[in-house]
Amino acid sequence: MGIQHWKKIWVGSAGNMVEWFDWFVYASFATYFAGAFFPSGNPTAQLMNTAGIFAVGFFMRPVGGWLLGRVGDRRGRKAALTLTVTLMSASAVLIAVAPTYAVAGYGGALVLLVARLLQGLSVGGEYAASATYLTEATDPRRRGFASSFQYVSMTVGQIIGLGLQIILQRTLSDSALHSYGWRIPFVVGALGAAVVFYLRRTMLESEVYDEDASAAEERGTLRALWRYRREAFLVIALTMGGTVAYYTYTTYLTKYLSNSAGLSKDTATLVSFTALIVFAGLQPLAGALSDRIGRRPLLITFAVGSTVLTVPIMTLLRHAGGYWPALGLSLLALVIVTGYTSINACVKAELFPTSVRSLGVALPYALANALFGGTAEYIALWFKKAGIESGFFWYVAGCAAVSLVVYVTMRETKDLDLTGTRGASGVGESSVTTAS
Question: Domain named Major facilitator superfamily (MFS) profile: which ranges (predicted)?
Fold first, then answer.
């Protein structure tokens, strides 16, 4: 790939990194600010309240997917990517200045809720705009490799958030972290978004988008998307297992290790931090592998592994007892999840033509995340509070099993053409037909 292609990947990834830094910082610092916005009492109940607000943000993602997906298809990928990072910056500022329960009662929780709604709106469009841009902006023979940087950037954003948490844990007292220290990462996120806003204003548009000559009035409309409803359903189905597994082993893992496995917050954070560094490095390798052998083998490997191994991995993690056993099990889980994360962006983008690609990825993916990804943590805590925590393990395995059926029966998308008015919709009228 040439310098211009790398520049496109870098700018798209940098913005995605900041978006997901802000998104995941909420989850990773929730153990510190949960008590700031709700009355004192059961720590699990406080975490459930903050997890509930976290889940609510996901239900704005379909709205963001529709709105910003439409912008991406009608105004360009650049316009959508610039707008998403602007919204994310505003939400980070709101959380950073939100008043606590002691100062404003539930008014602080209301500000937190509004900020999460803005984040949901932003991320709902960011995923599709970034996935579409990264898939379109490279050589067709290296789409898997290039689009894998979406999850590299997402993971790096989380790594930076966890790294900042480790630094704050070692420089501030526990009381200081609970009092004001948790606000620091949201200030950092807002500043980072301002930098990326400048970068995205000068970024290059996708050549595939520029060369598309389809009618402007048909771009990014629900009417146009309806013609590809089977592809949209496929996006929902193939996302189901992957998003539940991803959020289980990333955003929820730190809480699980500290709240259920009995590890200290410092140790739990260090386990997640180390595991995610390895996870980020695996994404381009798996993406490049998919350019050689296809997308389906990786997706099927992920689904089989998650279906069979989720229950034993989560059970053993609960009894890990220390850093190294917890790290080993976490790495095993994330290696399995890599089969989904490394290529899911390009697989979804490859299903749709240029004129509806951004919306086609955004809306069904956001719906799947609202139903499964955003609720994963809340469901996990609900099972724990009910005294049947292992029920959540079976839930994750069941979602993976459903997606496995889809992966086995879907067509390979690696060699589909993204150009032209029909583009990748050459998948035909039956994207979910049995592969030969």
Answer: 8-415
